[in-house]
Amino acid sequence: MKGNIFFKCKMKRNLTTLFLVFLPSLLFAQTNMVSGTVTENGDGLPGVSILEKGTTNGVSSDVSGNFSIELTKSPSILVFSMIGMATQEKTVTSGDNINIVLSEDVSLLGEIVVTGYTSQKKADLTGAVAVVKVSDMMSAAENNPIKALQGRVAGMTVTADGNPSGA
Question: In the list 35, 39, 54, 114, which could disulfide-bond 68, CB 3.0-4.6 Å?
Fold first, then answer.
């Protein structure tokens, strides 16, 4: 019986020692989280891409422009980008709370083609693309924008038969 008590005391001492060895690492464990807000003219920007430079680690800002990203290393460089806005880079360290103000950069837009599910630069497309200036369409005496395209896009024919389920 006496030997059994000795074994239990020694086991408790080993567990206590093991706990005390790992306690500092638990206390000083840090997460590499960085959070903040992306704005333009005081309004939050939704859908801004925030990417950790040199990695595939990234997030998007929410509807209020807020974001939170866990860095793979600290310090790190975050790249903030959005179509129509000037790209910005910011050096951050873990625990930072930053505010980024993006500005418009219309020179970057060029010709953007909006397809049914995405947008692309005209130069990146491999198919036939027709570009119609909105100002040309506005000069037409037509209320229907689809009919205003008639004669401006090669191969496009607009017909209407008056039937609600018709063409």
Answer: 35
Q: Does 26 have pLDDT greater than 60?
A: no
DSSP tag of 28: T
In angstroms, what CA-CA distances link 166 with 15, 103, 111, 157, 160?
A: 79, 45, 33, 15, 7
Please answer whether residues 48 and 38 qualify as being in contact, where contact means their C-beta atoms are separated by less than 8 angstroms.
yes
The end-to-end CA distance of the chain, in Å, is 95
pTM: predicted TM-score of the whole model, two decimal places? 0.50
AA letter at 55: T
Report d(CA 108, CA 84) in Å as an integer.
6
Kindly provide the b/e burial profile for residues 100-134, where b requires at least 16 CB atoms within 10 angstroms of the residue's own CB.
bebeeeeeeeeeebeeeeeeeeeeeeeeeeeeeee
Choose among 32, 20, 107: nearest CA to 69. 32
Which token pair is 88?
């910005």
Structure tokens at 72: 């793979």
Q: Tell whether the model's pLDDT for residue 140 goes beyond 60.
A: yes
Dihedral sign for Cα atoms in the order 113, 118, 120, 122: negative
